Amino acid sequence: MIIVNGKEMPWHEGMTISEVLKELDDPYPYVAVRIDGRFVTRPDFNHYELADGANIFLIPLISGG
């Protein structure tokens, strides 16, 4: 299992951040995620493999003025 924004999700060997986002069916274009305190940006989503038990926080793009 992994935890994504506080919710449990099944895990499998070789699972990437891109796969998690696809399984969540969330169309939001996240620019980064925090995995167990480490930040990973969008260019690495297809390559970063998640460990079983990973705690993932999705970081949305924030703008203001």
Please tell me about this protein's structure.
With 65 residues, the protein is an alpha+beta fold. The chain is 12% helix and 29% strand. The chain has a five-stranded mixed β-sheet, with no helix packed on it. Strand 3 (32-35) and strand 4 (38-41) form a beta hairpin. The termini are far apart.
What tags apply to this protein structure?
65 residues; alpha+beta; five-stranded mixed sheet; single chain; Ubiquitin-like (UB roll); 29% strand
Low-confidence stretches: none
Distance between the termini: 39 Å
Tell me how many strands there are. Answer: 5
Bulk shape: globular
Average pLDDT level = 93
User: Could you give the order of the helices and strands?
Assistant: EEHEEE
CATH architecture: Roll
What percentage of residues falls in helices of 4 or more residues? 10-25%
Question: Secondary structure elements and their pairing?
Answer:
Blueprint: E1 2-4, E2 7-9, H1 17-24, E3 32-35, E4 38-41, E5 55-59
Parallel strand pairs: 1-5
Antiparallel strand pairs: 1-2, 3-4, 3-5
Quickly describe the structure.
By secondary structure, the chain is of the alpha+beta class. The protein contains 1 helix and 5 strands.
